[in-house]
Amino acid sequence: PEELGPEFRAIASRNHRVLSPVAHISFSPSPEEHLDETTALLFATRYMEEISFGDCQWVLAGHDDTTTPLQQNRPHFHIIANRVRITDALVVTAWLDWKRSEKALRKLEKEFGLIEVTPSWEIDKSASSTGQQRRYKREKLEFEEGKRLSPPEHSIKVQLQEAINEKAADRPALPELI
Description:
Number of helices: 7
Strand order of the largest sheet: 1-3-2
Number of strands: 3
Shape: elongated
């Protein structure tokens, strides 16, 4: 950090308009996979090219001191990048960076033959809140024990998402979908 900090600042100072010159990016392969250092570095290099950071300074650090909800080791990587490009001092935009990142990760998983991880928008799309999950489990148990006459229903949010997904499957025009 003592050596890289001044180098990052020197490049960032070439663009006086940038307010946030540093980007912190993290990615995690599937817990069932282990990326050796060489593969991780190649993956990160391709990833940075895909998200327009190919001409920027960056550092990769990996660690596996976290676990999944199933208590599996969860290796993951952090990239600290200078958003100011070395070549022309222009800034890599942060606009919709998460979307570019997800697309790049899915593409590179295929390119490197890695296990495809579910994109965050797929996970977030149908995730019920903790309270909704608890209520569903409680109502299911009550139904199974005969303390409830009808089976539990998923939250309104999940029901709406399922209905929209079903109607949107054939890709109708927006007025038809509505």
